[in-house]
Amino acid sequence: MPESSPHGKSTGSSTEDVFADTYAEKGGPGPVRTLVWRNIWLMVMLHAGALYGVCLIPTACALTLAWTAVCFFFSALGVTAGAHRLWSHRSYKASPALRVFLALANSMAFQNDIYEWARDHRVHHKYSETDADPHNAKRGFFFAHVGWLLVRKHPDVTEKGRKVELSDLKADKVVMFQRRHYKLSVLILCFLVPMLVPWYFWGESLLVGYFLPVLLRYTVALNATWLVNSAAHMWGNRPYDHTINPRENRIVAFSAIGEGFHNYHHTFPFDYATSEFGCRLNLTTAFIDLMCFLRLACERRSASKEMIAARVQRTGDGSVKSG
Ligand code: ST9
Ligand code: ZN
Ligand code: ZN
């Protein structure tokens, strides 16, 4: 998909300075938006392909539709249980076998490699709603949703990001292996496997295999993820901390398999469930619990009931909590 180097990052070969704003509060002019035309073009093509995939749904066999849902679920887990709750927040511990599974699922999700994803996400938590936040929601819904992937990063992201602790990620062999082989792993797991399985096992056409389990599934998963940055930073109540922007948004929680309880998550980022309501609307928490039951994970961290109650009392907006 978008422009990337062997490390899965952008190379900057096809950019164009289109316009520059000024940041009055920074006391001087500076480039704010350098559009990355290649990313814009690829995102437009991807979404057009996903729309065509929707048109193909009536022609697909039931097994292909089920397979598309399976691919969505596994790739989502690679982001939620993997890049987010395990590698960005270290909210539980995972065995090597589970870490390998989550890294493979993460490559299927094609949302940048785990190292880059977790680096940006730690910066997002530390400098939330400032220029150093990669998807600063103060720059509007579109920027927080997808716009941030279509422009060069604000200089503050890189500058402040350098101060963020990443030694645990550098020491994680699974993370660094995935980063080294990211492009190949994405080609195989995001594109080839989802497309070829329906063709090989039940004779689905390659056309449907490409547009449904690959393009449509990928596009839906991307938008479900981006809604956490956009919708869940704008709409919903703030029962835990009314001084921050992130909100509790049940629609986002549903579509992002448990990641929409965002006011709770920004208040207690170490909590493996990202919510005080356990598995409710939260398939990721159910998955991590299952992994602990199977002894593939352990040491889940949670906020205590007392800690939550005290925080609600001190900084909550007084709204009713809903899990
Ligand atoms: C995608 C990611 O969609 C989505 C993430 C969403 C996060 C959501 C979080 C919400 C909670 C969890 C919810 C999960 C829900 C899941 C539900 C699932 C159903 N710190 O980036 P570069 C430095 S990806 C420190 O190229 P540019 C660093 O030296 C979609 N330093 O910046 C770096 O080099 P290296 C597919 C940093 O040139 C260098 O700068 N992928 C940091 O401004 C250059 O970095 C795409 O679309 C930092 N934070 O380019 C790819 N950042 O890496 C799009 C950078 O070697 N990306 N540095 O160390 C790009 O093309 C480019 O990144 C760019 C910016 C054009 C956007
Ligand atoms: Zn957030
Ligand atoms: Zn987080």
Automatic annotation (TrEMBL):
CC cofactor: Fe(2+)
PROSITE patterns tied to this protein: FATTY_ACID_DESATUR_1
UniProt keyword Mitochondrion, yes or no: no
A family per Pfam: FA_desaturase
Reaction catalysed by this enzyme: octadecanoyl-CoA + 2 Fe(II)-[cytochrome b5] + O2 + 2 H(+) = (9Z)-octadecenoyl-CoA + 2 Fe(III)-[cytochrome b5] + 2 H2O
Subcellular location, record wording: Endoplasmic reticulum membrane
Matches recorded under CDD domains: Delta9-FADS-like
Transmembrane annotation, as ranges: 40-59, 65-83, 182-201, 207-228
Annotated GO CC locations: endoplasmic reticulum membrane
Keywords: Endoplasmic reticulum, Fatty acid biosynthesis, Fatty acid metabolism, Iron, Lipid biosynthesis, Lipid metabolism, Membrane, Metal-binding, Oxidoreductase, Transmembrane, Transmembrane helix
Entry EC no(s): 1.14.19.1
A GO molecular-function annotation: stearoyl-CoA 9-desaturase activity
Keyword presence, Transferase: no
Domain Fatty acid desaturase: 67-269
Entry remark concerning the domains of this protein: The histidine box domains are involved in binding the catalytic metal ions.
Family: Belongs to the fatty acid desaturase type 1 family.
Top-level taxon: Eukaryota
Membrane topology qualifier: Multi-pass membrane protein
Protein name, as recorded: stearoyl-CoA 9-desaturase
Gene Ontology biological process: monounsaturated fatty acid biosynthetic process; response to fatty acid; unsaturated fatty acid biosynthetic process
InterPro entries for this protein: Acyl-CoA_DS (IPR015876), FA_desaturase_dom (IPR005804), FADS-1_CS (IPR001522)
